[in-house]
Amino acid sequence: MGTGIAKDDMEFAFERHATSKIRKADDLQTVKSMGFRGEALASIAAIANVEIISKTDGEETGNRIVVEGGNILENTEAASQKGTTITVSNLFFNTPVRYKFLKKDFTEAGYIEDAVTRIALANPSIAIKLINGNKTIIQTTGTGDLKNVIYGIYGKDVAEGIKEVSYKYEDIKVEGIVGKPEIARNNRSYQLFFVNKRYIKDKTLTAAAEQAFKGLLTIGKYGFLVLNIEIEPKKIDVNVHPSKLEIRWTEEQKVFKAVYHAIREGLLNESLIQESENIEEKIEENKVINVQEKIEEEPIKVEVENQEENFKTQTIKMPSFINIFNKK
Questions:
Q1: How many Å is the Cα radius of gyration of the chain?
Q2: CATH number of the domain within which 77 lies
Q3: Are 46 and 139 part of one and the same domain?
Q4: pLDDT of residue 272 exceeding 60
Q5: Beta strand pairing call for 314-316 and 300-302
Q6: What is the C-alpha end-to-end distance of the chain, expressed in Å?
Q7: Would you list the DSSP string of 239-265?
Q8: Is 163 helix (H, G, I), strand (E, B) or coil?
Q9: In this model, does residue 319 exceed pLDDT 50?
Q10: CA distance 327 to 170
């Protein structure tokens, strides 16, 4: 629900370029959210019906605003708990051409699910619920426990195969979860990186993860992980991709080391090492047993010819591989 929007600011929130994140010029260097230009709410309200109900802690009653196609139709008091609720309906009702370019319902629903999944993973302290066709797709409790979010999204098997990590390298902090080798996946889509809770795709982070999992996974497998890198905003540049999916680092090597050591530290604990050694021992043991069984069971045919007398072919069953060399 959040902390709410003040009554005097609610209409202003629908104006283009309205933002609450910038109060002075220095704030431009410390923005950690997805953006600060104030375009999203105004853009959505321009092509849909939007209702917003909000109340702050210091107000006795809440306020309700209804916007249609960018025009404010209602602005009245309303009963409300502290926080903000926004309802969007009839998307693209006044722009049918854009509506025609939407893909099939299940495809668009998939995009929404991916987006909500990332929001939920980056904000375990916020309760999130996604419903599609009267079916709950995603539901998180908002307790702040990332493991609970993983359980709600990926299921019990994955939740039982993860380990929490918290690692600090100089001024960079890495937190999240890494998956044990047994829940490794066939592609990198289950490796999610966030920087200051912003979802990104980055070659440096991917390379660090690959090196950290090296030697623990079979070829073609990729470790499961969800990591958030906390770093000073002034040390990254987020304006290098239209969708803000990529960033530029001022200290790339330091970031690589922080992520590498965070994953490695989470994986290479005593229990995981023991599990890995046990698996290797069992594999080697099975190889030896299979070889011995094959030697013991497989008969050997020996043919001997002599000028004076022809001996018949005999079948000799070998007692064991070792006895061959012990026999005098």
A1: 31
A2: 3.30.565.10
A3: no
A4: no
A5: antiparallel
A6: 86
A7: TTSTTS---EESSHHHHHHHHHHHHHH
A8: strand
A9: no
A10: 67
